[in-house]
Design goal:
The protein is 25% helix and 37% strand. It is of the alpha+beta class and 167 residues long.
């Protein structure tokens, strides 16, 4: 089944499908909002994206991931923030790891060697995914959000990929 999946660069024509994937997650803890985002608000989330990839299966997008800037300053250009979402019916097929590896590969080409991810403390699946890929918890902001009446922590996880010249 994996041979029918294509990981490719995002185009503006993908916006509605990508936004719909994000909005499918508002009923759980994978995204912070409790409500579906409008196109305007969703587009604002993407303003600092450096690398954006989608997973296509047949004629449909079933997942996506991107690297955004951590701070919009040149001395932070080697640090990126990872975000990815795959429709539940397509998880457990190795697509998350393939997307992750492709993002890291493209990030290295742009000089990104330090990766961060911020995750809701209620999103155990994402925490486990990052641990599987050797991310370590770097910080936790306690009780910074409330979703569906539940207080949530924001967990920051980090992994560095040294340049080949540093090894």
């Amino acid at each position: 089944m994996n041979e029918n999946f294509l990981i490719r660069g995002y185009t503006e024509n993908d916006l509605n499908e990508v936004m719909n994937i994000f909005n499918r997650f508002v009923n759980g803890f994978a995204v912070y909002p409790e409500f579906e985002l409008s196109e305007e608000k969703f587009t604002r989330l993407l303003e600092n994206v450096k690398i954006f990839l989608v997973i296509q299966y047949g004629g449909s997008i079933v997942g996506y991931g991107y690297i955004s800037t951590f701070k919009p300053l040149p001395n932070f250009s080697h640090t990126g923030v990872l975000s990815y979402f795959i429709l539940p019916e397509f998880t457990g097929k190795g697509l998350g790891t393939k997307l992750f590896n492709k993002l890291i590969s493209e990030g290295r080409e742009k000089g990104i060697t330090n990766y961060l991810a911020h995750i809701s403390s209620k999103n155990q699946q994402s925490i486990n995914f990052h641990k599987k890929h050797d991310f370590k918890e770097a910080g936790r902001f306690k009780n910074v959000g409330i979703k569906f009446g539940h207080s949530i922590d924001m967990i920051w996880m980090q992994k560095e990929f040294p340049n080949e010249s540093d090894q």
